[in-house]
Amino acid sequence: MRIIGITGGVGAGKSTVLAFLEKEYGAAVIQADQVGHLVMEPGEECYDDVIGIFGKEIIKEDKTIDRKRVSDVVFEQPHLLKMLESVIHPAVKRYICRRIRELQESGCRLCVVEAALLLEEHYQDFCDQVWYIHTDPQIRIRRLEESRGYTREKAEGIIASQATEEYFRAHTDYVIENNNDLERTYAQIRERIEKHAVL
Q: Residue 75: is its pLDDT beyond 90?
């Protein structure tokens, strides 16, 4: 099984690339963000620890954690973000490693792992190659305003807190430009998969 790591900043359109790989090449997709939500569900590994950090006021009526409230709190209090990450990130990585083993045993040919912090969390250690999805900052800000309802200030703050374009380019194997031309994005993916014998 080939494993491709997908990374890039928030709003870069990584999900567009994932959807194409899944549809065109039958890739099994694992998204760290989704796993992060999963491990915070009631009864899961991080549920009690997250409530321990933020208090019971983040619990909704259905007993799930109010992720929007958590997001708003950590935006204002960065030290709490560090505490949250110290709980969530190791649990997410453990889950992803387990899932990869399951996919290998099932005979899967292509697995794609997407994580904004893929490099910082050293996911590249188990990936055959890592792709960086690059999108111009102004497009990313607009996408975040439209898709997530972020203010410009919040979008700019999150982008500023993430790794730089130079860092991504220096530590990845392939760059996909994903601005406003989807066909160009898809052509770059096809070229990498088909011309470079990924499968």
A: no
Q: Is the dihedral of CA 135, 137, 138, 142 positive or negative?
A: positive
pTM over 0.90: no
| Per-residue confidence (pLDDT) for residue 116, from 0 to 100 | 86
pLDDT for 199 equals 61
Can you read off the two tokens belonging to residue 33? 């963000």
- In angstroms, the CA 147 to CA 189 distance is 24
CA 194/CA 46 separation, integer angstroms: 40
As a three-state string, the secondary structure of the chain is CEEEEEECCCCCCHHHHHHHHHHHHCCEEEEHHHHHHHCCCCCCCCHHHHHHHHCHHHECCCCCECHHHHHHHHHHCHHHHHHHHHHHHHHHHHHHHHHHHHHHHHCCCEEEEECCCCCCCCHHHHCCEEEEEECCHHHHHHHHHHHHCCCHHHHHHHHHHCCCHHHHHHCCCEEEECCCCHHHHHHHHHHHHHHCCCC
Round to whole Å and give the CA distance between 40 and 49.
9
